[in-house]
Structure formats: C-alpha cells, structure tokens
Predict the structure.
Amino acid sequence: MGSTGHLSNGKLNLNLLRDYYRRELLECLDKCLGSKALVWDDALTGPFGLIAEYSLLKEHEVEKMFPLSDKGLPPSNVQNIIFVTRPKLHLMEQIAQNLLQEEHKGGFRKEYHIIFVPRKSLLCEKKLKESGVYGTLHYIEEFNLSMIPFDSDLMSMEMEGAFKECYLENDYTTMFYVAQSLMTLQFLYGIIPNIQGKGDCAKNVVDMMLRMRRELGGREPQITPQIDNLLILDRNVDLLTPLLSQLTYDGLIDEIFGINNTSVKLPPEKFVSSSQSPEDAPTEKKKIILNSSDELYGELRDKNFNAVGSLVSKKAKTITAEFDERHAAKTVSEMKHFVSKLPHLQQMRQSLSIHTSIAELIKEHTDSEEFLDSLRCQQEFINGLDTDKVNTYVEDCIGKMEPLDKVLRLICIQSYCNNGLKTKVLDYYKREIIQTYGYEHLVTLMNLEKAGLLRQSGQRHYPTIRKSLKLIVDEVNEQNPNDISYVYSGYAPLSIRLAQYHARPGWRSITEVLNLLPGPTIEEIQQIPVALRKRRSSITSSHSSVMDQKVTLVVFLGGVTFAEIAALRFLAQQDDGGTDYVIATTKIISGSTLLDSVMEKLSPVHLNPF
Amino acid sequence: MATADWNPLGEIYYKKCEVYSMGWSDIVDISKFEVSAAPYGGPIALLKDESKTARVQVSTKPIITVFTAAGKQISQMRWNSGSIHKMGWSHTEDLLFVQDDGVVLVYDMFLTFKKTFGMGQEAKDVKVIDCKIFSSYQGTGIAVLTSTYRVFIINSVDDPRIRRLAEVPGLSSAPSSWAVINLDRQSRALIAKGSELCLIDQGGQYQVQTPDVSTEVTQFLAMSLSFNNRCLAMFTDKGVIWIGSSDLQKKYCEFNTKSPTPPQQLSWCGAGAVVGLWGNMMLVVGPDKDWINFNFDNPVHLVEEEDGLRIIGKYQHEFLYKVPEVTEKIFKIGSMEPGAMLFEASKEFYKGSQKADEYIRIIKDKLEIAVSQCIEAAGHEIDPAKQKPLLRAAAFGKCFLTDYNPEAYVNMCQMLRVLNQVRNHVIGIPLTYSQLQHLSMPILIDRLVLRKLFYYAVKICQYLKIADAEGASRILAHWACYKVQQKNEDDETIARAINQKLGDTPGISYSDIANHALEEGRPDLATRLLDFEPRAGQQVPLLMKMHKDNIALSKAIESGDTDLVYTVLLHLKESMNQGEFFMAIRNMPIAYALFIQYCRQQNRKLMEDLFYQEDNFQEEGTCKVVNSFNEDRMEDRIEELKLAQACFTKAKNEFAKVQTEEQIKLLKYQQRLEEEMNRPYLNLSLHQTIYRLTLANNHKVAEQLRKEFKVPDRRFWWLKINALGECGDWVELERFSKGKKAPVGMEAFVEVCAKHGNMKEAMKYLVKVSPEQKVKCLVKVGERKKAAETAFENKNEEELSYVLSKCGPSDKQLVDTIREKQEFIIIQQRSGSPSECSAKESTSSSDADHNQLALYHVTCQPHNRGYMVPIGYKCTIYVTCPA
C-alpha cells in the first residue's frame, strides 16, 4: 500500500473515514489474544487492502492469511483462526466445512472466530448452528465496513448485487447498509441539512436514514455540517447511461480490463522494460493501482480518450525539458535545485511510461472495427434514428456470435431510446438470442424485462427527456470540454444532468421531466441546531467565494460508471459551479458488469449417459 | 499535631484512621462469619455456615447477609443451592458464589438471583478443591482447582468461556498455595509445588521457577499478589515472608516472622507494604524489612484497596494507607516545602497575624506549586475538617497569582463534595480520591444506581453538569425499571408516571423498561411502555417474546432492517404450519420478497410451492426452467421443460411457451444427432448445433434444422460463411456465394477469407463487392494502396481518412500520398461544392515556419452519417494552404 495522502486532498477529508474503519477493525482483532491467522472471503481482500495494510495487521499479531475455500485450512501454529466474511449463506457452508475438517485434524489447540462484514446476520448464524459448528466459535463479531474510500472524492460499497436485489428481487438489504453508511458519514462529517433524491430506492434509503436518526434519540455528534446537500439517485432513473460505451480514459480502462478496488490488471507484454530479455518476460498480469496519488493519472483519468494522446505527449515534452535543465545548471545551487526535483521527475517519468503503455493498449481496442461500429450504432440509437425496427448491425453481431453482453447492451439501448420495443421487434431479438446463445438465456431475458432494461413499447418519454435535459450535444470539444457531454463524445449522462440541474437552478425548474422519470422525487430537510449551522459569510466579503463552495454528496444506488464520475468532477471544476461533489455508490459499474449482475448464470449439468 | 497518628515504616509513614463505626456492632461477631468485601468501598457479604461451627451435625443451610461498608444491612437470605465453596464480588458489585461442583451463581447486592453457569464438566465430576476470584483485564475472573489438580479459568463472569490451563508436571498432591497472576492481558496461575513454583498459562505452556530464598524452603504456605499484580508476597513454612516482583525475577526482601503458622490473611497495603494477620495481631512489613505492629481488641478482616487496606472489625471500619507524599511535604515537622509555608501563611492570615505576609514572601516564586500541593493534599484527606483548611490555604494562595487557572481547584472542590457525600454512612462507600480517579465518575454513579440511590445519583449528575444522555436520563431509566417492580400500583399509573418523568429524553431505552415489566409478569405494562420505544431493533424481539408476532413483523418491515424481518419470519415459520404461514406473509410484499430470497438460497422447493399457491405461473415456470438444467437424465429434463411450458401457457406468456417447446424439440434432435454421428451436440444452442453440423460437412441436416426452426436468412448466411471459413472449405464457400443472393453482401465473404488469411480467395469476391464497401474490403485484404486510389476516385474524404487510420509506420509513403489527396478534396469542397462535412477553420498557427499549416476540425453531423467516423467524433486534418 502506498500512502493515503490522496484521500485527504478533497473538500471532505476521507482519511477520517478510513481511520474510523481502522480503529473499528483493530478493536475487533484485539479481542482475540495471541497470534492470528485471517481466512478471507475473496471479495473482501480488495476493500480491506484499502483500509488496512498488511504491516498494520502484523502489528496486531496477524501472522498468516488464507483465502476461504472448500479445501480446508493449511496447517499453521497460530492461536486464533479468524474468518473474515460477508454474511452470505454459501460462505457459511464453506466455513462450516473448514471447521469440521479442523476438528478431525486435531493437533495444536486453536480458537476460532468470525468477523462479519458489514453485519452479523441471523440467517448465517442459524446456518452455522445447523451445521453444528456454532459452538466451536469463540467470538462472533461484526465490522461495519461498508463505504470504502477509494479516492479523495469517491467511495464505493463494492456490492455488485445491489441492482439485482433491489429491482429484481425486492430485497432492500443493501439499501439498509447504504442508510447505515450514510449515518456513519453523518457521524463523522455532521448531519447533512438538505436531502433530495429520485427513485424508489432513494425514498427507501431516506426514510430509513430519518428513522435511524430518530432512533439515535439525540445522541449525535455536535459537528458543524461539512456536507451541505445529499443527492440520492436510483440507477433505474437513468438506465441508459451505463449501457453506453464510456469514452473517458479510466472509463475505457474499466470497460476493457476491469478496475477492481482502484487497481487494474493488465497484460504484461507492454510493460517489459527493454533491458529484460524476452525469455524472462513476466507471464503474470501486471497490477497497477489507479488513484489520484499518481499525479498524472489524476489528470488523465477524466479526459476523453481522444485528448489523452496529446496530453501525454505534452507531459513527455515538459519532463524531458525539465531533465534537460541539468545541462543548463551551472552553479552549485542550480544543481541542488535540480537534484531536489529529481525524485518527483523520476516518478513522473515512470508513471508516464505506464500510462503510455495503457493508452496504447486502449488504442488497439478503440481502433478496432468492432468498437467503432458498435459506437456508431449506439450513437444512432441515442439520436433516435431507426430505433423502431430491427437493426442490421445488431443482427450481424448475433450472426457472428459476438459476445452476448455487447449484443444485449445494444438492444437495451435501443429499447430505452425507443421507449420500449414493439412486441414483434422485441420477440424477434429475443428469439435470435435464444437460438444463437442458448435457451438458458430465457431467464436472463425475463430478468432484463423485469428490471426495465428491456421493455415493450410504452409512452414516448425519451425524446422529451432528451430535448429538455439537452442530452445530445452536437458541438463537443473533447480537448477542452465545456460541457459534460464530452465523456460520451456528444451524449450528456442523464444522471449527471440531474445533478447539474440540482445545483443550479434547482429541481423545481425541471419538475415535468422529473415526473417522466420513474420513482418518486424526494425532498427532506434535516434540522440542525442553530449553534452548529454554517456561518453565512457577509455579502461584502468577496474573497471567500472558495470557502462558500457547497459540498454535495451524490449517492448512486445500483452503481455508477467512471464516465459519470468524470462528468461530476468536471462540474466540480467549473468556476461558476459553486458546488463540490463527493460521490458514493454501491458499486462502480460498466454496462457489462451491470448486465452481468442481472444475468442468470445457468449451466446445464452433464447428462448421465445411462 | 497532624502527624501524631503517623507510623514510620523506614523512610515513609503509614496512617490508620477510622472510616466508620459499624452499624452492625450489636448483631455481628465477625469471627463467626466468612467475610467477603468488594474493593472500592463496596458492600460486605457475611456468610454464616452453622454446619461448620455447630458441634452437632446440623443440616441447616447457611445464611447470607449483605451490609454496606458502614455496616448497614442491605439484604439477607437463606441459601438454597449446593454447598458454597467460595464467595466473592465481581467488579460490577455482583455477589458470586462458587459451589464445590463448579457451579457459579451470580446475585446482585440485594441478593436477587441474576444468572448461573458452570466451570465445565470436569470440575463438576471431580469437585473443586480451591477457588480464586480475581480481577482480570476483562472484568472479574474465576479460577478453580479441581481435585485432579487441574486449573480451569474464566476471564470474565459476564462472558464465561472456560479455558484449561496447562498441567503442572508431577503434581501429586494439592499445592500448598496458588494464585492467579494477571499481566499483559493474560491470566496465568502460579502454583506452589514444594519448593518450586510453576507458572502455567492458557496456551498449554508451563514454566518452573525457583525463587531466590536464602533460608531453606519446603513449602510456600501462602501467597498474595498486590492490587496491580506486579508484586508478590509469599509465606514459607519456616515463617519467612518473601517479597518480590510477580515474575519472580526480583527479590525486594525477606522478613523472618518466626511464626510457625501461616497468617490468616496475607495481604498487600497498596503496593508498598505486606500485611499479615494472626488473630488479633497485624504485622505490616515494608520492602526494606521495616515493620510496624498493630493489635486489635476484636477479630478483624482485611480488604485490599489499590491505595491501602481496609480493616473491618466488629465496632470499627478502619483504613490503613501510606501517607501521600504531598501530605507529608505539608505536614511533616519542619517542612520548608512551598505547600507547608502556604498552609502556615493561611493559618496566620485567618488568625489576623502579619506573619502571613512573611510566609508568602518566602515562597513567592513557588506559589503556584504551593497551591497545587494544597489542593492535592486536600484530596487525600478523608475528614472534611482536614480538607477545609487545606482548600482554604489553596484559595488564599490563589489570590496572589495573577493568571492562575482555577480549573484544578474547582474540580477538586467538586470531587470532594461528591466524595464526602458518598462516604457519608447513609450511603456508605468509603472511596478515596485516588480510587475515584481509577474508578471514574460514571462508574461511581452506576454504583449509586445499583444501590437504588437514584435521587443522589441524579443530583450528582446535575451538580457535575453531566450530559443527560449519560447522566440523568440513564438514571431515570434505571429508576423506571425499579418502578415497574412495584406490584402495588396498577399498570396505567406506572406507565403514565414513567412517561411523565422520562418523556422523550434522549438515551432512554423504553424497551429495557418494558423488558423488565415483562420479567415481572406484567405484559400489559410492557406493551404500553413499548409504544414509546423508537428503536425497532429493541422493540421487535420483545414484541415477539410477548407473542405479538404480527405487530413485530410490521415494525420490523418499517425499520428496513432485513435481519430483523428474518428474525420474525423464521420465528413465524417455525410456530405455524406452512399454509398459515404463507397466508400470513402474502399481504406483506417486503416480507414475502425476503422469504423468497431465503428460499432461493436454501429451499427452492418451498419457493416453488409458494409461487404455486400464489398462482404466480410465470415465476413457477422460471423455477422449472432452472430445475431442468440440473437434471442429469434426458427424460427428466424434458419432463421439467414440459411442466415449464404448461406454466408459461397459464401465465399467457406465449413467447416463453414457444421457446420452451422449441427447446424440447431441439434437445430431441440433438440427442438423435449424437446417437447417429457420435459427436457431442447436446447443450449447444441451435446456432451452435447448425454451425457444428456445417463444420462436419453435414449440410443436409443443417438445412433441415434451419427450415425446422425458421432461422432468419441473414443470420444463417453469417453462420454458414463463418463455419465454412473456419473449416477452410473454400470450394463450398464459393458454391454458396453463387447461390441465392447473399443478404449480408459480398463483403462478408471477403471478410471471412481475410480473417482466415486466404487473400487469394478474398480477391475472388472483391470484384463483386458493392462500390461503397470496396475501400473497406480492400483495406481488409491488405491492399491499402489500392484502397486509397479507389477512395480518391470516389472523391470520398472520409474513406481516405479511414485508410489513413489503418496505415502503420511502414506505409510512410502511402500516408503522404493520402494526405496530399485529402487536401485536394477538401480544397475542392471549400471552393464551392456543397460540403459533405462541416469544416471550419479553428486555429491557424502564427508561427513563421508553419504558416502554411492551418488546422481544420471536421465534425460529422447526424444528417450525414459517415461510415467510419461516429457522429460527434472529430478528426483533425492538417492542410497546407496554397501560398
């Protein structure tokens, strides 16, 4: 783990949140005395890596770490085995199995514990009891890690199931976690006075939050609010944006390689230094951490990919020029000045070489026929061209058996932009998919319809929404953008337009559009004791305009894409914006991961030949 | 003289003073009781076991009485369980009884039973021969020694987890003495085996140690640990008291008492002196072999405190403690310390003597030290009459200081006021200032609450301005719990009284109070009280306990806490039959959805039943589809699919029905194909099946399937072209191309040939490609130059830039040519011809060297969809302007 300085660079010091989680974690660990081994639920290692580094765990006598698996625990001579797990039933089965195997093994006496993240669950405890291992567990703790700080303005809960559970299964458990996390944030950063939101889940979360505040019964921290507004948006308010291909730098990295817990794994070939002979080239994927502590990445990530090339070459030139300064350095003090800059320069050079390689990898992809054709098709759809009939390009994709998620993405976009498809068209697509990709996708298709991603034709809202929110912008400047539409090269994400109108001139001005979008519109005000209210600076003091910038926490329920994040950051940077954004989400998604979460993964068992 | 009652022990002094004259003097003869008193001025429990003292064997059970430290009776009861081995207090002032079968019973100081737990099967089977109650880092722990000489230990009575300590090797008889050492968050036992000591721990490790004793030792008869567990005192069979560190590494001294019998009690007075009690004689031994002797008229009992030793007798309750350094500084005869001078000055001042001024002058520079010395010394005084002059001196000294922070003075006054109050014999908690600092104020308030002294507690909170949540309202909640126990008042009155007093005070847990009411057998009162509870997490379990399941379920749903909903749901499921249960949840969509979620993971059959009962055919069908994939026999799989089909029919889902029908048909086909061709076809999609058939050159069957399942032409063409390309059947591909007109265009043929590297074949189809596709296809087969020429002929700038984008570093010459041509086209377009692209000049460099260069942005507009460049995409073109 590198330093965590980047977390405190924003308007809101997220290191506070990280420290809070660290304290909680250590409290849990310190309850068990003696040497410890941690057994990890795989999905948690990433998030934990962002909270506590191995050396810290080591200080608290963690000697070994194992992944949780069916195979049982490797032998070790620690005094405590601690399972760190999400409250999922299938994981309980694995834990139970591990414990039973341990019992058979005997040997060195150990104590077993479980830490549930983020919460204990009755069902899981019941499961453990049924498996007959509950008694062997000494401590059953919970560690409420849910909002993981990713960057100075970004938090994610990394719960990929949220969208599916809410919209397909009516299970709002994740929303409860969201509400709890928001309470944690309020505990650290003060009560948020203004709350607005859109969508059923948002309503749910706000109701729970207000209720939890009542339950606190006045025992809340006496802090001046550091967050002024809370904006909660359901993903199903804007199902179009995530389906489109993201065109920002980190959006593309995520679409092509997948960013998990702020790190990405890339094919190693591009990262072989010239000194290495090809034989000992690494075969393992190269892991790169992407956050704003890398200065260059901080600049590049939100740029449209078309602007990345020129920016990188400009940077390369500056750095070369700075390196060349050493020739010009004559006096000792000049030399000293140069040497003091050296570490920074070297670091820049290294990160420059990394990002040049990444950009090359992306370029291979964006130059491909498939990418450009699919982009063209998407652009046609969002412009409302020929959305009402079967699209030949989509047909060809199916014919060529291109990846199912690509095909589904296109069809879903068409469905959205056409306000649902005619039964004939929809059935045609569905039949094509089943015949080509298999009958097992029947359930997936039903799920898509249930989630509203695929629809039968309904009322024609899209053209109105498109027009009144100015979703399509013809004149885009990708190099020096003047509007958020640069993130999709001509399409402004609906969700972020809502955030933009929320800040200025306010949602009242777009009531009609809001009524066209699904779910209720929510507006709540939380009373703050007078003593804690922000002091209004007087009108005369013009110099304090930066201080007056409001902080808005935008929460995306069901996920947010990197391109949307880029758009919000763009808004925050605008001089006249007056609003700084902090983003929280249940999961950072792309179109593919969103669809993947809704897909039913069915694989037929092998038929018994007898 | 202030120093009259100081007893010197080497360099330092010890002082013994009376705390209370005991209220029990008429009724209690301490020698006839087993005595146990809680530290920090806690209550005293007396156990009278008549069976032990009576000359004849009597079977009466012992009587237990609890007194305050001032000897005021709190409660009394006759024991009605097994035989008590040991009695002691926990850190929360609960009375613990350890029976000889290892059962521990916990009572509060009013002798109300709280809970019980055992010390393990082994202790139960072989009996306990000795027991220690000790304070651990987690609270209060218990260690028992069984008759098999094994030690079992729990570290906290609140959370009893039994651990066995390592065995002492070769221990064949009961140890002559033992103790539990609590250091570094670990409890270990020190067992004396002959002249050796053995330290055993929870990890199964043991350590034999021989302490450095100068005289011969055959046995250690007694041992005692200091309050902080750092020092150890032991009494050997030769009458020697050995004093050293508890890790046995350091020896402070050895003191020969010449007593053949061990003391009745071997204790520590603070951490500075060891005290032995023989009958009415008490010996205090310091670390440098100094000693003091005390004699009593009556038998006494010793209670260790962190800063001294309490001596409880029939008539008196005394406290023996080291004279604090600061007190010594002020009162020691001839002391010239600033504090002493200030004290003198103040005395003179109140006498009206000018000497006051003289004294103040002497200590002028050290006045601040003098004030803090007086404040501190006042804290250590127990008698208010002695506190006053010291505080007065401090106040006097304060006047001469200009910027003195009065916080320390004010705090001390407040603390002393509270201390004097609780020391009053009515309350009877003889706490010293240093003990209070260790115990902390909130805990002292808790202790007052424990004694049901609610009024005092509230008053103290208000006096100290403690926030309501931690102070007054918390106490009120305790009061309310006590109130519900009062059987003589009716529910309505109590509920009203409680709500009136408590209202919406933050930090009040109505559910705790309701729970108490329920335990007292007053469910109606509990329900009334629960209505005031805002926290669902507290409310719901209690409602369930009261069998108000439906209210519990709706409250749980309201809270949004899934786990809480499950708690109620699973409880309902167990207490009802299935039908009733389904009926109960059908009107609660959230509960219903959550239950389905549970079934999805745990019991799919139940989920299907539920869908069936609800006539949710669509979902039921989906279940069947999912099930079909798990069947490993063909007939079963088809059977499930038929069921699914029936469900979809009922659900009026025509599409799903037809697809399921076709799937059944496909499966049957595939099975037949497998049998006939002996190749795997099952579990493939229709498309894949036809593809495989084509690969296997089985065009007839492929055609048959195509017709049977009505595969659209376009897709079939792609399928066939790709399959033929993959297996390299170029002849068949050509034949296919000459058949019906290809709906996908000739370019598909070019593409597949190029993909599989057969450029020769590709060229065959190239001629037939439509003109608008030509450039693209030429690029695909690698003929970039030709492509560029064609594009130029078409006068299509977009096509040119497409070719350009496909040029690698090796095509430098071509790149230059294309650029030239592009310029030509653009200039043509600029000079009159209606532009296909909106081109506009955006920047022109003013640089002298580059002034021939102008930069144009071309943006494709929706109305002229270009082929290669998506709408909104931009390309940048460098143009050399003709001079």
About this structure: Chain B touches chain A through 78 residues (CB under 8 Å). The first strand of chain B starts at residue 6 and ends at 9.
